[in-house]
UniProtKB/TrEMBL annotation:
PANTHER family: RIBOSOMAL BIOGENESIS PROTEIN LAS1L. GO terms for biological process: maturation of 5.8S rRNA; maturation of LSU-rRNA. GO terms for molecular function: endonuclease activity. It comes from the Eukaryota. InterPro entries: Las1. This is Cell morphogenesis protein Las1. One of its GO terms (cellular component) is preribosome, large subunit precursor.
Length: 402
């Protein structure tokens, strides 16, 4: 007997239309249809049988649309993000209604859901709502997870998938990246290799990563962002046997050659990786402790990217101001140390710029601004940062008398 499946939509084309409104293709330049997609899902819910993935996509998207400081208060924006995120995670990992009794972390592992999602859901439910920085990042990652684990697989064309080099089947991009990274870990974890063989393996891994990221339907940057997320969620950048205070040089030496080759073609990988590192540093309540090994590892990676000579050429892409803002918003033992290093480096940069300007003003011919400073300033402007023309410093709640 044929199995009958009831859906809230009349035809599959309607579901595909809603998908294209939630996740418009890269070539689309028309009006924003996300609000219409949310309204459609709301209507479908009146009919019933709406998959949780579809409902969660609508809730998370609606929270993003609600993120307007001109019309809504910060409290309501944080509450909307928290409610949408908590419902998304709970609907996936809660096993009290059906199925065997398992912990939320066990259920999350079965689904391939990052454990940090469960931790953030617990924090948002039982403690103060997380900061907007954390909630915005978590919401974006949730929508990416929903694409890879539901929306990319609703048609037979493999839309949203990426083909892994050496394989014929189209699979989700995150799965393809994970396979490449795991193969690299298995190869580098064996007995010591000759330098030539090791270099060949690093070159091959970097090339495959670039190929998979380039196959992303949303472009190379989306692939590089997914790569950074997988590196952190899978704990590939850390030694599982490492103890507090141990050196991280072995992991730096393992990953630097591969990541630098990727950065040589697309320097934005440093931007995505450093942002992912600082988000993981402030996202988990356990990382607030000065005795947390994972938190120390995250801090050491950020310090390495910020100060190591091998990353000097790519360092203009390092989002110093953004990371400093996150550290100031989430003050912990490790973020305070990181903020001090960032501020000290900023002071050194300012001193160099002042010295350059003084030299230029006393010289018969004005010197050109250093290329690195120009690149750094341009990158800041691309991400919405800039230098204030005038800074009016006064206590909160005090208005100017002018």
């Amino acid at each position: 007997m044929a199995k009958v499946t009831f859906t809230a939509w009349k035809t599959k084309a309607q579901l595909l239309d809603v998908r294209s409104e939630f996740y418009p293709p890269a070539w689309y330049n028309g009006p924003d249809m996300r609000s219409h997609a949310c309204a459609t899902v709301e209507a479908w819910k009146l009919r019933g049988n709406v998959p949780h993935h579809v409902e969660a996509t609508a809730l998370l998207t609606d929270a993003i649309l609600h993120d307007d400081g001109q019309r809504n208060s910060i409290f309501s924006i944080r509450a909307t993000y928290s409610a949408a995120f908590c419902r998304f995670v709970t609907g996936l990992v809660d096993t009290k209604v059906t199925g065997p009794r398992r912990t939320m972390f066990q259920r999350a592992m079965d689904l391939g859901l990052p454990a940090s999602f469960v931790e953030l859901r617990h924090e948002a439910t039982h403690r103060e709502p997380p900061s907007l920085v954390v909630l915005r990042k978590a919401t974006q990652r949730s929508l990416e997870w929903l694409w890879d684990n539901y929306w990319a697989n609703i048609d037979s064309d493999g839309v949203g998938g990426a083909t892994v080099p050496g394989h014929d089947d189209s699979i989700p991009m995150t799965t393809a990246l994970s396979q490449v990274l795991q193969e690299f870990m298995r190869g580098s974890g064996s007995r010591p290799m000759q330098k030539k063989r090791k270099r060949e393996q690093e070159d091959a891994t970097a090339g495959r990563l670039l190929e998979v990221c380039g196959a992303s339907k949303d472009g190379m940057n989306a692939g590089l962002a997914a790569l950074s997320t997988i590196l952190l969620d899978s704990n590939l950048l850390f030694d599982s046997e490492r103890k507090l205070g141990d050196s991280m040089d072995a992991m730096f030496n393992k990953w630097d050659p591969v990541l630098q080759q990727v950065a040589g073609f697309h320097s934005s990988v440093l931007l995505f990786l450093s942002e992912e590192l600082v988000h993981n540093l402030v996202l988990n309540a356990a990382t607030e402790s000065s005795m947390n090994t994972q938190a120390e590892g995250l801090f050491l990676w950020l310090e390495h990217l910020l100060t190591a000579p091998v990353w000097e050429l790519q360092r203009p892409s390092f989002p110093r101001d953004y990371i400093l803002a996150v550290c100031n918003a989430q003050s912990t033992h490790w973020t305070r140390i990181l903020a001090e290093k960032l501020q000290l480096q900023q002071q050194d940069t300012t001193a160099v710029m002042s010295h350059t300007q003084m030299t230029a003003s006393t010289s018969p011919k004005r010197l050109a601004q250093p290329a690195a400073v120009e690149i750094f300033s341009r990158k800041l402007q691309e991400h919405g940062w800039g230098f204030a023309e005038k800074w009016d410093s006064r206590p909160l709640g005090i208005t100017s008398s002018n």
